[in-house]
Design a protein that fits this description.
With about 400 residues, the chain is mainly alpha-helical. Helix 8 packs antiparallel against helix 11 and helix 8 packs parallel to helix 12. It is globular. About 60% of the residues are buried.
């Protein structure tokens, strides 16, 4: 779990730095959002190509390789002197995260006892988003108190990755080697037939939550300064971390609630959070945006954790890694692609209009998810899955 959080923290650490890089190197807004989105793009490509690789090679080899790649990316941040180095480092972070995220989720769930598995599923769903928040807060705070914050933060992360490598090496392997590793590298979306009804129902909710995170972690360094007047590094880091921190913290208490009910409540909270945040941005009210970030973050935490619980119950160890990769593919597509489009649009249109459209899409996805969950609330997904397996 420690290594999983460290991987996500490395990605979150770059967010406050992007605003610093832009003021130092004077590049266009679209380049800033490209530096954010290239992480998501390479992550998505890795999920498509290697999402089920750990189902064939085992969990540990994939995790060790991903952590080694994270160390390389962090070293590039230590020597960066232009936006080009940042783009390369962010791309490597995306590859490493794409290989590690779903594998960490599968491994932690498989290492858990049957009694603790629902709770650990939710905890693993909180680790990536919580790590993003931790990285943003750490970097934002260091910008105000450390002379060379980039090197301080990524040197600390390198130490964390080394500890993570030792922990993964010591852990028990949970997935046997299965033939077909090379064939599994063919780009594909691995959703086993028994899990498809569940996947179709939760995909809009996953997309809404991670798109809302992208609003703060991708566009936050721009609108918190331009619209809300947040100027300090610590203030910037705390602001962009507010939504993912709420998702990580408030998502865990929902682990003891029925998964479908928690997912429906998550969709409602996402809808309310998007409405509050956009209203605050349009009226330049920092407090209202912050409340929206917390409410919507709680919705993402409830929705994403319950979505993984529903998906985990519809899969077994032979296809769980690929299924979780498909879920994270939806998540990171919604996390990165809309921000890239919004960054281009903000260079050509009024920023408030762009944010209004962005928030409207999040709200629409939340309504779609809520409608689907309510319409299918009586469908016996898991019993249907068992019949198909037989």
């Amino acid at each position: 779990m420690f290594a999983s959080v460290a991987v996500a923290a490395a990605a979150g650490a770059g967010t406050p730095l992007l605003a610093l890089y832009r003021s130092t190197w004077d590049f266009a807004l679209w380049q800033l959002t490209a530096a954010f989105s290239i992480y998501a793009c390479t992550l998505l490509a890795t999920l498509l190509v290697a999402g089920s690789l750990s189902d064939h090679l085992g969990r540990r080899p994939v995790l060790l390789g991903a952590l080694g790649l994270m160390i390389l990316a962090s070293c590039l941040f230590l020597i960066d002197d232009g936006i080009e180095w940042v783009l390369v480092a962010r791309a490597l972070q995306g590859v490493a995260t794409g290989a590690a995220t779903s594998t960490f989720t599968a491994a932690i769930i498989e290492l858990s006892s049957a009694r603790r598995r629902p709770l650990m599923t939710v905890v693993t769903s909180a680790a990536p988003i919580g790590g993003l928040a931790l990285g943003a807060v750490l970097t934002g705070a260091s910008l105000d108190v450390v002379a060379d914050s980039t090197r301080f933060v990524f040197a600390l992360l390198i130490v964390s990755f080394v500890i993570g490598i030792l922990a993964v090496h010591a852990a028990r392997e949970t997935s046997a080697c299965v033939p077909g590793a090379i064939a599994s590298l063919r780009p594909q979306l691995m959703v086993p037939h028994p899990a498809r009804p569940v996947f179709a129902a939760v995909a809009p909710l996953v997309a809404a939550g991670w798109m809302f995170s992208g609003l703060f972690l991708g566009l936050g360094p721009t609108f918190d300064h331009v619209i809300l007047g947040v100027d300090s590094g610590a203030g910037n880091g705390a602001f962009v971390a507010l939504q993912p921190a709420a998702a990580a913290l408030f998502g865990i208490p929902f682990a003891r609630r029925p998964a479908r009910r928690a997912a429906s409540l998550g969709a409602l909270l996402m809808l309310a959070g998007a409405a509050l945040a956009v209203a605050g941005l349009l009226t330049a009210q920092l407090a209202l945006v912050a409340i929206g970030a917390i409410v919507g973050g709680a919705g993402q935490g409830a929705g994403f954790g319950s979505s993984l619980r529903l998906l985990g119950d519809a899969a077994d160890s032979t296809d769980r890694g690929g299924l979780f990769s498909a879920a994270y593919l939806v998540a990171y597509t919604a996390y990165g692609l809309p921000v890239l489009v919004a960054g281009w649009a903000a260079d050509n249109f009024d920023l408030r209009i762009v944010l209004l459209v962005y928030g409207t899409v999040v709200a629409a996805l939340s309504v779609w998810a809520l409608t689907g969950l309510l319409l299918h609330r009586r469908r016996p997904w898991h019993r249907t899955a068992e019949r198909v397996r037989r």
